[in-house]
Design goal:
Blueprint lengths: L2 H5 L7 H25 L5 H11 L6 E2 H7 L7 H10 L3 E5 L7 E5 L1 H21 L4 H18 L3
Antiparallel strand pairs: 1-3, 2-3
Helix pairs in contact: 3-5, 3-6
């Protein structure tokens, strides 16, 4: 369905504005689907992102600051989110032995299990519902990268 039908708007002032609205609307719709899936695992999108980042360290500790730099949602309160994941026993944290001001984060066995299950559920849902071919996905990614590079300072 076209974005004009979804938001009941006849037209846009420009193709760029139409694209930006379309991307925001679609992003919100995908976020909602992700929310519904992650809710089953007692995770938010931001918590899932943190678990993926820490799991990607392959058993090595990661400082809190580096997690914050890698977050998709850079407005997140990473310290608060990590504390919630520690309370759920998905992460552990300890003071770095060399730098007492640095907190190192590790993923627990329970955290690995939940991230693996949540990842399978998300991948399965999105792959089974995608209507884009691999070549379309690749081209779309290239175009979105180019658009983001035009407007952001990331």
């Amino acid at each position: 369905m076209k974005i004009e039908q979804l938001i009941k708007q006849d037209n846009f002032d420009s193709e760029l504005l139409r694209l930006l609205v379309n991307l925001k609307f679609t992003s919100n719709a995908l976020d909602y689907e992700e929310f519904l899936i992650l809710k089953q695992f007692d995770l938010s999108s931001q918590q899932f992102n943190i678990l993926r980042i820490v799991k990607g360290q392959k058993g090595k500790a990661i400082p809190l600051k580096l997690i914050t730099e890698r977050m998709i949602d850079r407005m997140s309160n990473t310290s608060r989110l990590v504390d919630k994941l520690v309370a759920k026993d998905f992460l552990s944290k300890e003071t770095n032995k060399l730098s007492k001001r640095q907190i190192d984060i590790n993923i627990t066995k329970k955290g690995l299990a939940v991230i693996d299950k949540a990842s399978v559920a998300l991948d399965s849902f999105f792959k089974s519902n995608s209507k884009l071919s691999e070549s379309e996905l690749k081209k779309f990614n290239e175009l979105v990268d180019k658009l983001r590079d035009s407007y952001t300072s990331y």
